[in-house]
Amino acid sequence: MNAPANAPTDAQTDAPTGAPAVVVSGLTRTYPVPGRRRGDGVRALDGVDLALPRASFTALVGASGCGKSTLLQCVAGLDRPTGGSVRILDVETTALRPRAAAGFRADHIGFVFQEDNLVTALSARDNVALPGRLRRRPLSRGDVDAALERVGLSAQARHLPHQLSGGERQRVAIARVLASRPDVVFADEPTAALDVAAGADVLDWLPAAPEWDHGPHGHARRRSGRSRPKRPGHGRRPDRRRPARRRPRRGLPGRPGRPRRGPGPGGVAGSAELAGSAGLAESAEAPGPAEPVGSIGGDRPMTRLLLADLRRHAGTWTWTVAVAVVTGACVSGQFMVMRGSLASARAVGDANLIEAASVVSAFIIVSVVFAAATVLTSTSALAVTERERDHGLWRALGMRPGTLRAVVLGQLVAIGAFGALAGTAAGAVVARLMIPLLIEERVTAPGTAPQWVPVDLLWSALIVAGSVVIGGWGAARRASRAPEVALLRGRGDEERRWDLARVLGLLLRLAAVGGLGAGLVSAWLTTRTAGVGSDAAADAAALGSLGAVVLMCLLAPWLVPRLQRALAALPVPGTAWQVAARTAALESHRSSATVLPFLVAIGLVAVLFSGRSLGLASVSTRGFLSMFGLALVVAWSGGVAVIAMSAGRRRRDAALLRAAGAREGGVLAAQVLEGVLHAFTATLLGLLALAAASPLLAGAAGLSISDALIRAPWAELNVVANLTLVTTCLAVVASSRARGGQGVGQTLRARD
Question: At residue 739, what are phi and psi to the nearest 5 degrees?
Fold first, then answer.
């Protein structure tokens, strides 16, 4: 291996035979660092050359942080090298497309992680059986139980990961690899969480690759015989083996004439961090029929996994569904109000009332749809992003990228459809609450009743379900393309690469920003040419002001991280401020999703109340709430939901602070300051939207921009800013202190 001083320092190979199973040439891996140029990142690997023979067991040792884990992950295909090539079993894996690479890894490679990386929603037995299910080659229940028995966990087969100790979870992870019988096994410090005796057993299990046969339909079947033959070749008949059974996809049998303790034909190395041959020792039981593990889905392999995932992460999905239902109720309710208002106005025959109902309904629908689309896309994107660790684990265990996208798409469609249907049922209640307020504002005739037509259900479904799918699809696509290791570390977004889809998405966003900018200029010109106080100028100012809010929402994913990093750099004393500011700055996707809904609420109040304060409209506060209250409800519910969806991370952060010796007051201060940062950011961006709309409002009112800003609705803005502050702080503190009965250790072990 040709590598600098930061590379692994030693490698030992026992009895290498045959052509190399793994060939590494010039492998380089550089990690980007935020704030640095692309070429100035951290170089973990620099020109590593390595050849590992077949039927070998290799240990790779070196100082901590020298790149052993990175090398294993790049060679195994869990991480993407910056340069160089990797060839495994005569296939250049670094040249494969993501789908083909995932298929090859699922068929031939097993990986024991430094951390156990178990699916928290599944039992020990289900975790062992999961790779076979994902690869569509399910193991029999006997094979799974034999693997657990091999690592001494038969009695814990039904236990969930949080019910197991660290060493027991690590043994389940090892059993998962042994039962899958891959051709090549990489193990990253598999004995780190184990005692000396258990570690010695692991070092014995990995190279002791048993022989497996496969029945019809790809079901694994145990051969009879002793688990540990006393002499080489015992219990085997090499002369009867057919070449077809040496196909890598179906598991390679052991080499004839070699002891069972020796490595298998595809056995390869890792770090001591260690790697060895794949397989599970034979059982002394007689062979039986291949019985798939029914607890993972029977004829529908993914059913059990998805149901368990939904149950385990019910908090995240429940909040997402709640936002979808609230949004669906507001959207469908406003459609009912519009239908009823227009019908009653036509029945009366009042042309002014018909025009008022049409204009007001249009403004309300536009504002509600805008708030709904913004909040739902943000919420669903965060819901999928919060699950990226599990998505990375699914992919590492054999799930294809296309299957992952299909699974996430199915979840998003189900949430959107349920939200639209349940929201439509609740829309009648919303409509009955809104109509009296609109009658009082004289934009709806007395006696108006909600009306509903079937096409409204279609529109509600398109708005709700479409927003949910669009918001989550980008995160799902990133989860299917990012390296598995990056997803497992919760840093999948940092590993994004510039592909065609990302370029098109950026161009689309830039086109939207440019179009809105052109619209603002056009609205400003209209206010100048239409004349002060004219209806055309007032309408242009109103629509342009809404466009300013939309523009700020489009720019929020870029502005929020930079703004919060700037706030984190302020020299404010105190540990609480440092923890809150730096957490908000680093968790940019969560911060953007939290700020965006409140930005919608503050921006609407800022620009629409400005029209009243400048004399462009005569709407009272009650009238404003009657017309735009639904949009505010949607925005506020989305903001609270987003904060609640990140509760698991906040609970773990609080537990870490307590474990480090922080007092309860310091923990509470950090939580409150996080809410303050989110509220301050949302308020500041709302004021920027007001500043962008002020030329339009000033032109329509015949005032200078400074006069328009002076006469801005500062009282209303103060109220909504304070409400945002109180809401964010309470939501952050409440979500952080949920499950208060848990101890620090239990909280740190929880992964929800």
Answer: 55, 45
pLDDT one-digit tens code per residue, 344-368:
888 877 777 787 777 777 777 888 8
CA distance 683 to 687: 6
Residue 503: Cβ-neighbour burial (10 angstroms; 0-12, 13-18, 19+): exposed
Q: What's residue 475's pLDDT?
A: 83
pLDDT digits (tens, 9 = 90+) for 652-706: 777 777 766 677 788 888 888 888 999 999 999 999 998 888 888 888 888 888 8
CA dihedral 401, 407, 410, 416 (to 10 degrees): -90
- Cα dist from 62 to 30, 65, 398, whole Å: 19, 8, 30
Distance CA 141, CA 222 (A): 11
Q: How far apart, in whole angstroms, are the C-alpha atoms of residue 495 and residue 483?
A: 7
Asked if 445 contacts 439 with a C-beta cutoff of 8 angstroms, the reply is yes
User: Is residue 384 within 8 Å of residue 475, measured between CB atoms?
Assistant: yes
Q: Where are the domains of the chain?
A: 1-226+251-301, 313-497, 519-752
Taking 3-state DSSP, the helix, strand and coil percentages for the chain, each rounded to the nearest 5, stand at 65, 10, 30
DSSP reduced 3-state for 529: helix
Pick the CATH number of 1-226+251-301 from 3.40.50.300, 3.40.190.10, 3.30.420.310, 3.30.420.40: 3.40.50.300
Residue type at position 157: A
Determine the Cα–Cα distance for residues 458 and 420; give it in Å rounded to an integer: 9
Phi, then psi, of 18 in degrees rounded to 5: 75, 180
Handedness of CA 666, 672, 674, 680 (dihedral sign): negative
Identify the residue whose tokens are 């979500």: 735
- Which residues, other chains included, contact 286 with Cβ-Cβ below 8 Å and sequence gap of 6+? 224
In terms of phi and psi (left: phi > 0; alpha: psi -120 to 50; beta: otherwise), the region of 572 is beta
Provide the 8-state DSSP code for 644: H
Query: Which helix or strand (DSSP H or E) is residue 220 part of?
Result: strand 220-221
Q: Tell me which residue of 421, 441, 418, 419 sits closest to 353, measured CA to CA.
A: 441
DSSP code, position 43: E
84-116 as b/e: b if 16+ CB within 10 A: bebbbbeeebbeeebeebbbbbbbbbbbbbbeb
- Token pair belonging to 319: 């909040």
Enumerate residues 6+ apart whose C-beta is below 8 A from 51: 20, 22, 23, 24
183 Cβ neighbours under 8 A, 6+ residues apart: 89, 108, 109, 248, 251, 252, 264, 265, 266, 278
Q: Between β-strands 270-271 and 58-61, what pairing exists: parallel, antiparallel or unpaired? A: parallel
Specify whether the CB–CB gap between 265 and 56 falls below 8 A.
Answer: no
Give the separation between CA 218 and CA 180, rounded to whole angstroms: 12
Alpha carbon 87 to its chain centroid, in Å, reads 31
Helices (H), 272-400: 301-312, 314-348, 351-385, 388-396
> What parts of the chain have a pLDDT lower than 70?
1-18, 34-40, 121, 193, 206-308, 310, 312, 490-502, 615-621, 623, 659-661, 738-752
User: 573 Cβ partners below 8 Å, 6+ apart?
Assistant: none
Give the phi and the psi of residue 189 in degrees, each rounded to 5. 50, 60
